[in-house]
Design a protein that fits this description.
Layout (H helix, E strand, L loop, with lengths): L2 H31 L6 H19 L2 H12 L6 H19 L2 H24 L2 H21 L6 H9 L5 H23 L2 H11 L6 H15 L6 E5 L5 E4 L2 E6 L6 H20 L15 H15 L3 H14 L1 H4 L4 H8 L16 H17 L7 H12 L25 H21 L3 H6 L4 H10 L9 H9 L6 H14 L3
Parallel strand pairs: 1-3
Antiparallel strand pairs: 2-3
Helix pairs in contact: 1-2, 1-3, 2-5, 3-4, 5-6, 6-7, 8-22, 9-15, 10-11, 10-13, 11-12, 12-18, 16-17, 16-18, 18-22
Amino acid sequence: MSVTDAIHELIPLLQRAHTLGTIADLLGWDEQVNLPPGAAEGRGNQQAILAAVQHAAASEPRIGALLAGLESAAGALPVEQAAVAKQARRDYDHATKLPADFVREKAVQDSRGYHAWARARAASDFAGYAPVLEKNLEFARREAAYLGHASAPYDYMLDKFDPGLTTATVDRLFGELKRELVPLVRAITASPVAARAREVGERLRGYPIEAQRAFLREVTAQLGFDYERGRIDVALHPFCSGAGNDVRMTTRYNVDQPLDALFSSIHETGHGLYEQGIPVAHLGTALGMHAGMAVHESQSRLWENQVARSRGFWRHFEPRWRERFPSQTAGVSSEDLYLAINAVEPTLIRVDADEVTYNLHIVLRFEMEKKLFAGELAVRDLPAAWREASRELVGLEPANDREGVLQDVHWSGGAFGYFPSYCIGNMMAAQLWQRLRALRPNLEEDFARGDFGWLLRWLRENIHVHGRRISGLELIQRATGEALSPQPLVRYLRERYGTLYRA
């Protein structure tokens, strides 16, 4: 069989497995958006059956035979086909090394874990949730062992979300960032301007949800999100799922915190724009697959922060904001509104954190995960360890587990190793922003005109279209001309917030 014939036979097999995975994603979206409480157990069984079918498709022996043939002729493969074969090998080995029974059991556990977390969070009951989390950790260690990483399970979890990422790399990047970030946070929060920003934020009250919904739909559509190929709904925890022609985003609303829904929606829109920018024809292969969750987070964080918190962005959207909320904004000046948008105040809740202190929340979670996987921290001791770390890093101590260790959904589905992607994504976003500003110094003037087209086109051409041909770290280096570093993030934060807060 020729190399061309082998590739042509391989790709439909890969895409079938991928399509089954998107059905599972859709069930997961429905579970968090629409599922009646009494249907939780049934959904777990549905997920288990579908996971078994998807696993069988991904571990189809014919895929292995085709890959073996392609690898024997590796030198004859064009670059793009070589990338497809390389990723397919990684995915096939992952599938074939995981027993089918394990895959089914984990699907049930992930579904049960979400509902157990939702109940525990509502009641601030970590003790009742702890056995579920212990079982999730057990599943994660078993999975790592099946894949040959029993001695370094946390490295495996990091690599699962960001291929090639290791604990050592994250330690180095986070250590350098933490040294510079902690004194910057202290200088900003000690500024008299910080108190003024908080006071303005307290005045943003009574924003009707339907008007919020209409405004954020207008904003996200103008940024470029295609609502013919996606939608936005409400969930307990904002997220984005789906791919290509069916992207599902969620947010949550609070009449007294109007900026929360807006910025979480813009964040998820960044994810959605990335998925909509990946070539649909190649979905299921390396050419139609995102480069890793850190790159994904770089897209969401860039749109949420560098773009949507800029003066140019608000020069365009502030008049519409005031039209939607005339009485609520009557006593708020443009400068006060900009301060509220860029308020810096330590908070216990990660998803509510400003972009300066946000990274400290991620460092906290990274440290917790490392200790859990190293056996240095028992699940039962997590609440106390969390309180201590929060006091040290964020300067605040949670009064209960709901605003502490139970606040995030990720561990309920076994997504250990995901959290570092957020902070690394912030570093990538700042490095991309540095490059974008060098290429187009008046980029914010585009925003002031309501024109986000140049930015989206550049991201499509330099990030989205490349899929997973190369690793995320290499992709960012190619796009920016520099190896990933925390320094562009530090410079960006000093430029925007140091100037604003005179810190």
